[in-house]
Every structure is written in structure tokens, then in C-alpha cells.
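Input (structure):
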């Protein structure tokens, strides 16, 4: 399967990337074992621009919606587009940090 936007974890033990399958999902591969974990997926959602937090425990990413689709809502009924954070170990669900109200092209953590 094709991938894009691969980025090394700060400790260089994992690589986060966008998997271009039936949906566009954020995934992580363990460099030593080759194990791949899918962190996100969803109907009509496009996750992009992954960035590691400095401690390597979370990924920050942009989420937008496929063209001509109504944005799905989160648990509070808010549109899902925006900037999100997810724990790499899967211990907590994704958390929206900011709502953008539209597509996001690129961002970076400094």
C-alpha cells in the first residue's frame, strides 16, 4: 500500500506515516519489529501532516473531510475537522485541539 508523510519519532524507534488505503489513516511502524499499528481511520476523513510531540508519546495531526462530504461529528456533536492529538500507544482516544472549519494544508510543531 502507498504511504506518505513519513516522520521519525524523536527516539528513532518508530516512524509515523499516512497510509493511503481505502481510507487515509495515520499509522505507526515499530522499526525493530516491523509491527504496524493503525491509530486512526474513519469514513470520509483525511488525516495528514503528522508531527511527534518532543517526548514521542503523542502525534499531532490535521484532519479534514473528503471532497463533497459532510464532516462527521465528534462525541460532542462538533465537526471533526481540525488539529488533533492521539496517544501513540492507543491508551486514549484522539482529542481535538482546535477546530479549523475547513481543510488544512500543512502545519509544524516547533
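Output (sequence):
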Amino acid at each position: 500500500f502507498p504511504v506518505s508523510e513519513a516522520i521519525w519519532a524523536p527516539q528513532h524507534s518508530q516512524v509515523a506515516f499516512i497510509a493511503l488505503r481505502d481510507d487515509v489513516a495515520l499509522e505507526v511502524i515499530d522499526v525493530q519489529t516491523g509491527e504496524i499499528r493503525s491509530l486512526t481511520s474513519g469514513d470520509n476523513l483525511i488525516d495528514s501532516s503528522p508531527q511527534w510531540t518532543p517526548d514521542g508519546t503523542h502525534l499531532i495531526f490535521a484532519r479534514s473531510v473528503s471532497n463533497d462530504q459532510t464532516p462527521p461529528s465528534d462525541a460532542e456533536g462538533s465537526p471533526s475537522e481540525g488539529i488533533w492529538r492521539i496517544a501513540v500507544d492507543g491508551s486514549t482516544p484522539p482529542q481535538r485541539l482546535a477546530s479549523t472549519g475547513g481543510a488544512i494544508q500543512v502545519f509544524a510543531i516547533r
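Notes: The chain has a mean pLDDT of 82. Residues 3 and 19 are 5 Å apart (CA to CA).
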